[in-house]
Design goal:
single chain, 176 residues, alpha+beta, Alpha-Beta Plaits, five-stranded antiparallel beta sheet, 26% strand, disordered C terminus
Length: 176
């Protein structure tokens, strides 16, 4: 079980939001992977190869990569980072499209938000590219899968990656 900090880092003693000063932190390699799931009907999945807008999965990959590079412009307290690596994969699986985004840098702060932003925007792009076929598309389970480096150390989400299952179908989750 990971330890829970005693306070949120983006607030000062008076409770005002502020950007954390990371100047004294050593620059080390940081890496993070996030995932998202876009739930699509069988009809939309079957239509993916013939999308008149182009290949939705490739467009989503490019959008996720671009989004990771813009994270600090979108999320006010994120530090601008020079990313040394960003990869976004969009894979058709049972029930939809699984997005996985990995970001890396050498810096005094982590890249979790860059990976989360990439996964989120890639998922939104799949929605944008397919919404003409179905307005009922759902984006689910945008989560941090793993991270490494930094003061807080390594993290890996417990229980594997089951983001393509409904919450009631996951191990340890039963309907009431």
């Amino acid at each position: 079980m990971s330890k829970v900090p005693h306070k949120l880092s983006h607030y000062d003693a008076a409770g005002q939001a502020h950007m954390v000063d990371v100047a004294a932190k050593p620059a080390t390699r940081r890496e993070a992977t996030a995932s998202a799931f876009v739930e699509l009907s069988e009809a939309v999945l079957a239509a993916l190869p013939a999308n008149p807008k182009g290949n939705p999965l490739e467009v989503a990959r490019f959008a996720g990569i671009q989004a990771a590079k813009q994270t600090s412009a979108l999320i006010p307290m994120c530090h601008p980072l020079a990313l040394s690596f960003i990869d976004v994969q969009a894979t058709v699986v049972v029930g939809g499209v699984r997005i996985e985004a990995t970001a890396a840098t050498v810096a005094g702060t982590g890249v979790e938000m860059e990976a989360m932003t990439a996964a989120s925007i890639a998922a939104l792009t799949v929605y944008d590219m397919t919404k003409a076929l179905d307005k009922g598309i759902r984006i689910r389970e945008i989560v941090l899968v793993r991270k490494s480096g930094g003061k807080s150390g390594d993290y890996r989400r417990n229980g594997g990656n089951h983001n393509h299952l409904d919450p009631d179908q996951r191990e340890g989750h039963a309907k009431p």
